[in-house]
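A favour, since you know our structure tokens better than I do. Would you make up a two-line entry for one protein for me to read? Write everything out right here, beneath this request.
=====
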Amino acid sequence: MSDWPDMRMGPIGTWPGTMTRNKQRSPFRTGGYYARETALGDTLEILERELRMLGAKDTELLLAIRPQDFRLDGKPRAQAIAEHSGIILSFESKHGHLSYPCDTFTTWQANLRAIALGLEALRKVTRYGIAAHGQQYRGYLAIEGATAMPAGFTTVDGAAEWLNEQFGEPGTIHTFTELLRRAKRASHPDMGGNPDTFQRVTLAETKLREAGRL
């Protein structure tokens, strides 16, 4: 798996709206006669650049992959098979909270590239003077992306308290790194854990990282 930008990943809970019925084959292909889909690594480079230009924070990518098909580090397994190709990319930006669902194409990789190239195109709208003050992003402010299951944490103290209550050893003071290691081992589906609990552990980790506690 190629290197991913800094983002939280998880399974799609509910698709926002009606899914595309007649999905298109990916137009992002290279190689002439023996054309194949553009490499994921190239897509991730574009995505990382565009997120950086937008000052993106708290980035979340949701895929139609079962919770147990995510690795301990929160990234999807190489052999993971998506139930459908739809994805949702959401993040906080200098223009507000933006959310981009996409299921136009038959693979999630193509839909991710479509979003990455779309972000690039939106940025150029400002660059070439067609719109100012981020007006081209306003249509995406009202789109509510699906949320990962279950709900996350509003404060870093809440995340730390929940981890300690659920996975801490009584009478022992754990570092956050030790606490997360215990939590991941205990909750990971491959080790008999509950998928929803594992996802909440991932959300707690994200909150701790945002606060510089890890």
